[in-house]
Each structure stands twice: as C-alpha cells, then as structure tokens.
C-alpha cells in the first residue's frame, strides 16, 4: 500500500498535473493526498473527470462497441474508464482546523496543511504526521513520532508513504520523474515508533 503526498502547488497547474499523473500511474498507489490549503488539486481532478466519459456515455459507448467494436476498441474504452475511476484516489485536506486521518495497517497517519494547528492530543495519537506548509522537504522525529513534508511542489519533489510487507513504513522523497531522492524506514514495536537511518 502506498499513499502519495503532494505539497502545496499554488496556482502552478502543470507541475501538479505532472505529479498527479506520476502517482496515478503507480498501480500500488491507493491514495493521493494534496497538502495545500487551496482547491487546485480538486479543480484538476474535476477537469480530468469531466474530460472522461460520464456513466451514461460509458454505457452507451460500451453497448455500441459490444455490437460493432473490435477487441482493441473495447480494451481502449476499459483503460479510459479505469483511468477516470482512479481519479477518486485524489484527496484534499479539510478546511482548518480539521485534520485528515488515514490508516496504513496499524499505522495512523495524520495530515494537515499547517502543523501549527495540531495540539498535544493530535500528535500523541498519530505515528506519522504529514504536513504541507514548509519551505523545503523535511523529515524529523520527535520522540516516537515522525513529522514529514515533501515541501512545496515548486521544488519539484513529492512524497510517498509505503507500507512494506514486513510491516514497517518507508517515508520517501521523489522527484517529478519518480526518481527516489531519499527514504527512511519507520518501525513500531507495539505503540512505540523507531526511526532507522
């Protein structure tokens, strides 16, 4: 299981579209969280959804291809439908002071735009805190917690959390071509988190 993390993009859609395409193209990706405080990711996803086939158009086109289409035509239609359905993986943060919480097996991931809105209880109940408001990428451990940000998208970097088969999570920083820039494994023993370097 992987969760993609995209830092604030401002109004720079081309980089955001590139980051989304990279993460959406990863078959192990189960969710993509946009860490900005704006609605640009929701607008991009909405534009892409409207560019695809709606349900009625899909059913009409399916019926037409079932009667007169080739196997390649039907396969292309199914690929397009799957691509449109994958857009539902894109999540945006709720407006402050709300927080987003995700589970990765036994791991609790807390996502916010600005980590300054978090209180002691928020931090105590999460293993990994991901946030967007930052000048640069950062991964820091404070006691048994890991704080991670991919930084603003203007730095051409994005993040990824991956639940590994052994049960630990890897925190990764990638460039916009998908190249791994660094990674850090996180381990828990019961409720305790250990960061290995």
Overview of the molecule:
- The chain is 30% helix and 34% strand.
- By secondary structure, the chain is an alpha/beta fold.
- It has one domain: Metallo-dependent phosphatases (Purple Acid Phosphatase, chain A, domain 2), CATH 3.60.21.10.
- The longest helix has 16 residues, at 71-86.
- It starts with a strand and ends with a strand.
- The mean pLDDT is 85.
How many distinct beta strands?
12
CATH topology: Purple Acid Phosphatase, chain A, domain 2
The CATH architecture comes to: 4-Layer Sandwich
Secondary structure class reads alpha/beta
Q: What's the gyration radius in Å?
A: 19 Å
Percent of residues in beta strands: 25-35%
CATH superfamily: Metallo-dependent phosphatases
Q: For the terminal residues, how far apart are their CA atoms?
A: 22 Å
Q: Identify the overall geometry.
A: elongated
Summarize the structure.
The chain is an alpha/beta fold.
Describe the protein's topology.
Elements (H helix, E strand, L loop, with lengths): L1 E5 L6 H12 L4 E6 L5 H12 L3 H14 L2 H16 L3 E3 L7 E5 L2 E6 L7 H5 L3 E4 L6 E5 L2 E5 L7 E7 L5 E7 L4 E10 L2 E4 L2
Parallel strand pairs: 1-2, 2-3, 5-6, 6-8
Antiparallel strand pairs: 1-9, 4-5, 7-8, 9-10, 10-11, 11-12
């Amino acid at each position: 299981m992987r969760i993609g993390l995209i830092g604030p993009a401002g109004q720079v859609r081309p980089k955001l579209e590139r980051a989304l395409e990279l993460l959406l193209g990863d078959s192990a990706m189960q969710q993509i969280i946009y860490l900005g405080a704006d609605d640009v990711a929701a607008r991009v996803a909405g534009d892409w959804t409207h560019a695809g086939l709606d349900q009625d158009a899909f059913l009409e086109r399916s019926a037409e291809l079932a009667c007169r289409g080739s196997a390649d035509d039907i396969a292309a239609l199914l690929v397009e439908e799957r691509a449109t359905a994958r857009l539902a993986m894109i999540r945006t943060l709720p407006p402050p002071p709300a927080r987003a919480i995700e589970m990765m097996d036994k791991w609790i991931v807390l996502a916010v735009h600005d980590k300054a809105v978090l209180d002691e209880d928020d931090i105590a109940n999460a293993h990994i805190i991901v946030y967007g408001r930052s000048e640069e990428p950062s991964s820091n451990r404070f006691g048994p917690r890991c704080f991670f940000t991919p930084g603003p998208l203007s730095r051409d970097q994005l993040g990824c959390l991956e639940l590994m088969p052994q049960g630990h999570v890897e925190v990764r920083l990638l460039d916009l071509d998908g190249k791994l820039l660094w990674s850090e494994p996180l381990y828990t023993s019961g409720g305790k988190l250990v960061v290995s370097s």
